[in-house]
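@channel sequence for tomorrow's demo:
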Amino acid sequence: MTNIPLKPANELFTDFQWQSIFDGDDNLLISASAGSGKTTVLVRRVIEKLKNNGNIDELLIVTYTEAAAREMKERIQKALQEAVNQESDEALRQHFTKQLILLPTAHISTLHAFCLTVIRRFYYLIDLDPVFRMLTDETETLLLKEEVWEELREEFYQNNETTFFQLTENFSNDRNDDGLTRLVFSLYEFARANPNPEKWLLELADNYQVHNNLADNPLFQQHLQPIMLATLQEAVDTYQQLERWSLAEEGLIKVADLIIAEKQQLTTILDCLQQSQLDDFYDQLQALTFERYPSIRKEEIKEAAQLIKKQRDAVKKALQDLQKNYFPYSPNEMQEQLAAAYPLVKEMAQVGQAFMTRYYQKKQEKGVLDFNDLEHFTLQILLAKNDENKQEAADFYRNKFAEVLVDEYQDVNRLQEAILFWLRNPNPEQGNMFMVGDVKQSIYSFRLADPTLFIEKYNQFGKEEGGRRIVLAENFRSRKEVLDFTNLIFEQLMDESVGQISYDEAAKLIAGFPNFPESQAFDTEILLYEKETEAEEDSLDEVFVEDKTDGELLMTGLKIRELVDNNFQIYDKKLKENRSVEYRDIVLLTPTKKNNLAILETFKQLGIPLEVNDTQNYFQATEIRTMIALLQIIDNPYQDIPLAAVLRSAIVGLDERELAEIRLTKRQGSFYEALLAFDSQEESHLVKKLELFKQRLASWREAARRVSIAELLWQIYDETAYLEYVLGLAAGKQRYANLLALVQRAEAYEKSSFRGLYQFIRFIEKMQEKDKDLAEPLAASQENAVRVMTIHASKGLEFPIVFVLDMTKRFNLQDTKTRYIFEERAGVGLRYLDPETRVLKDTLPYLAIKQVRLKKLLSEEMRKLYVALTRAEQKLFLVGSYKDQEATFKSWGAVADEEQLVLPATLRLKSQSSLMDWIGMSLVRHPDIQEYWQEGDILAYLKKHPAHFQIHWLNEMTLAEAVTKVQQTTETLMAAPDSQLSSDWQVQAMELLNFNYPYSEATKTTSYQSVSEIKRLFEDPDNEQTNKLVWESQEQKALSQFRYTQEELAKPKFLATTTQPSGAVVGSATHSLLQLLPLEKTPTKALIEEILAQLVVSKQIDSNVAQMIKIDNILQFFETDLGQFIIAHQQLLKREQPFAMLLPANQIFEGYPVASDDLLIHGIIDGYVKLEDQLVLYDYKTDYLADPQDPSAIKAVIKEHIGQLRLYAQALTQAEKLPVGKVFLVLLNYQLVLDVTAEVLEK
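C-alpha cells (generated this afternoon):
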C-alpha cells in the first residue's frame, strides 16, 4: 500500500474510500456494502488515473448491465468536464479535453460487449466468420434448440441404443420424453458456463465410479460426511448437557439412566463415522432406539424434566433427518446404485456433447451467435497462439490496459473469470485488477453467477495473498433506523453456512449520511394479515378479503393512503429539508411478478396511482388475440376457431345469428368452406360484409407472400382502421400501444434466423406455451405513482419508502426435488430408476449435491432479503400473512432460548421457512418483542441494540372498516346540469328506447342453447360438430323438459342483498376443481387443497366459494368403483369437453312460437372414457335432495337431468363415432353414483 496521498481535512471520502481510490500497486478487491458509494469511488479512481497522464482508452471498465455502463460513462464525462473547467494547468486541461474526445470509444461496457470487440478484431486467430448476427431473443433461441434436439433425438432413437432408452426412461414419464429434453437443455447451460465445457461433461461420471470403500468417494468426503459428523457431534454434546442436568436432580435418576444409555449409542455411531467404518455406522444407526421417556409426577422437577425431553426430542428429529437425507441406504446398496447409474451418466455426457456440437453447427449455418458464444470465442482467442507461438490477442490487451476495473464482481461466473485472468497483468508483483462488489448482494444464480469466486478472493486477499481487500461499510443511502434493523436481522442470520459469508463487524452497515435526524416514526414496521377463524368469518356481513394476497395488498394500500393522506414527512436530499411524502417516493418490491395484476386491481380500488412495468398479460389483451387470430387465418383460413374469432370481432362485425346462418349453408366441413359456399339471393348487409372480408382476406394472403409481417400488419391496420377503433375503447391508449408493439415484435422477429408468417405464428405460440408472455408496453408513465418491481429489478436502486411484499411466501426449492441436480463444481446428481422395482433411488451424488444446492438456494434467498431491505432510504415496511397470531409467535419462539447471537444453521435451513420466518426468528430475542409476546428471553447482546420495530396484525374485519373509511374520504359528488336535447335527438332516443327486438322469443331460452359462447374468441368448440341431428319422438319429448329463462335479469353483484354463494356457483367451482385434478393416482386431501388454493390465487374461484366445496365428498367419490375406473383409465379420459349442435327450436321447447328458428345447443360434458368399442359417460351434480334415502327423490333428480344426458350421449356418439355403453349420474353431495344407462339410452 504505497503512493497514497494524505487525505485533506475537508475531504468527504472516508479513509477506506480514499484508500480504494489511490491504492495502485496491487490487485484490489473492494467489498462495498449497500449504499457505500462504490460507483463514486470507481469514477474518482478513474479520474485520478487520468490526472497521472493515463488515458481513458488504456482502462478496461467492465459493468454488469448496459445501463450501468451508460451511467459510468456519463459520470466520467461529467467529472472530466468539471476538471477541464476547474483545472488551471493548461497541459492538464488539454489532457482532460483529449480524454473527453476519447471517451466515446473507451472500453466501458458489459463483458459481452467487450467480447464482441475482441472477436471483431481477432476473429482470424480461431478461423471464425466475422459476419454474424447476435441471437438475443429467448424464444428464438428456444425454437432453434428444439429444432436441433428434435433432429438429434430422432437419430439417437434410430440407433436403437439400450443406454439411451434407459436414459430416456429414467428422466421421462409414460406420456412423453419432455423430461429428457429439459435435462439436455439444462445440461447444456451448466456445461457452457464453464471455461472448458467438454472437460466438464467428460468428468461428470467420475463421482459415480465405485471405490473399494464408499468413504473414499470425494462427494461423500466433502459434502455428506462433514454434515453428518457435525450433526452427531452436536447430538452427543447435547446429551452430555442433558446428562449433567438429569444427574443434578435427585428425582430424575430414571431419566439420567435413559440419557446415559442413549448417549452411549450415539457415541458409538459417531466413532464409526469418524473412522469411516460405514457398514458399522449404518448398522448402528439402524439399531438406534429411543425408549419411552419416564413419567415425572413431582411438580418441583417437572419443568426440568420437560426441558430435557424437549432437547431429547430435537436430537431424535435431527437423527431421523440424517438417516433420511444423508444415509438412507446401506453402503452396499449405495455402491450398487453408483454402478448402475454410471453408464447413464456417461450416456448423458455423450448426449450433451452431441447436442452442444450440433447446436453450434446449426448456429454457424444460420450465421448467429449467442452471448455465451461471445465469451467462449473470446477465451479461445485469448488462448490462441499465432505462427510465432505467441498469444497475440492476450499480449495485445495486457499491454494495452494499464488497469482492468470490474464492477459487480460477485456476479461473474467461472468462464468470465477465465477471460479476466487473461486480460490482467501476469506479473504477480504488479497487480492491475480492481474488483468491486458485494457478495451479500449476489442474487443471480439463475444466470449461473458464482459468488464463491468473490468469497475465495475475499478470504485470500484478507491475508494479503495475491492482492489486498478493502471493506466499505459506511452507508450513505439510508437512515440509521433502516441500517440498525438490517444489522439486527443479518448479524443473527448470515454466516458462511447460510449466505456464504460472515456478517461480522466489518460487514455491518454504518450510517454515513449525517442529515437524517433519529425518529421513532421511521422504525421498521411489520404488517401481518391474520386470516379469520370460521366463527369470525360467519360474523361478517360479507366476504371482504378473498385470500391472503388480497389481505396483504389491502394492508399495504391502506398504509400508503395513511402516509400520503396524513402528509408523512420525509427528508429530501436535494431540497435539504423535510417535505410531505408523495406516491412517487414509494416502491413495492415483490419476489415475482405473479401478483402484479392483483396489485393493480387493489390499488385501483383504493384510488392509488400505480406504475407496473411488467404485468405479463400482453397476449391476453383482446386486440392482440384478435390480431393473432387474423394472422392465423391469413396463413391458413381452414381453422374454425380463429376464423370465428375474426368474424365476430370488430374487423368483420358479425353477430351470433349471422354466424349460425353461415354454418347452415354447409353443415359439414370447415367453417371457411361454409363461408365460401354462403350465397344469399338477397343483397343483405351480411352479404356485403362477407364480400368485403373475403376480398380483404385474399388480398392479405397475397400480401403475406410478398411483404414483411410488419408491413402486412400496417396494411391491415390501415384498411380496417383497427388502430382508430381501439383508441375509442376503454383503455384505448394502452390497446393502441399494444398493437404498435406487435409490429415491433414482428420487425424484431424478421431480423432473426426464422422467416415467414407460419414461423412467426409458431414463434408467438411458443412464447405462450413456455409462459414467456410479453409485458404490456407502457402507454404513458405516471410521474406521481407508486412503483412495483421485483427484488431482482431493484438491485442498485434506492427509494425513500419501501414495502417488501409476500414475505411469507415459502421458499421455492423445486430445483432440489427433480430427478437430477446440476452444480457448477460438483457435477450432476441423479435419482436412479430401478428397472425392476420401478422405484426412484437417490444416489450418493444426488444426496450430496442436493445439500450443496439447498444451501446455495437458501443462501441466495438470504441475499435477496439483504438486497430488499437495503433499498430503503428512510422507511421500511415488511408485509406478510399468517393463519394464527399465537401460533406464529410460538413458531418464531423456537429460537428464544438460543444463547449464541448467530442462530443455529439447522433452524435457518428449514425447508419450509420464508423470509418472514427468518425475520421473526431474529426479533424474538429483542426487547421490543415484549410488547407483542412475553414468553421469550431477551438475549443479553440485544438488550441495548439500537434497532427498533413495530408489528401490526390486521384481519378482515379491521381491513373492511379501514377501506370503508378511505373510500368515504375520497368520494366526490359529480353534478352536471341537465343536457338540453334537440327534438331530432329526442326522436332518435325514443326510437332506440322503444325498439322491439325481432327475436325476443329466442332471448327467453336457457343460455346453453344460445351461440353467445362464440363471443369467447378461443373457447368455441369445434364447429365440425355443429350439425343438425335427427331425433326420435321420445327424445324430442325429453328435450321439452328444458326450461325457459327468467324474464327478469338477476341483480348485479353490487346490488345483491346477500353474498352467500349460490349452489350453482359452488357447483361450477367444484367442476373447475375436478377438471384440473391430476388423476394418475387416487387424489389425496392435500392435493385437492393445493389445486383449490391455486384456483383461488389465480382468481378462478372466490375464497368464500372454495370454502364451501366439500372435499371429503370428492375423496369418497374416487373411492367408488366408478372413481377407481376413471383413475385406472385416466389416459383414455377426457374432461370438460365442449360441444355444439344446431336444433330446431320447436324440438326443444314445446309450443315454441316461431317454427323456423334454429337454436345452437352448446354445452360442456363433465367427462367420458373412450374405450375401444364404447364410451363411458358420467356427469357430476351437486343438487340438493330433501331425503337421499327416498326413491322418489332419486327418480325426480334423474328425471330432471335425463334430457341433458341424452343430449350429451347423442353428441358424443356423433363426434366419436362410437356408441355410449354406460351413463352415470354422480350426486357428489350424497356419495351416490347412479347408473342411468337404461333411462338415457332407451328408444
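heads up for whoever presents: The mean pLDDT is 85.
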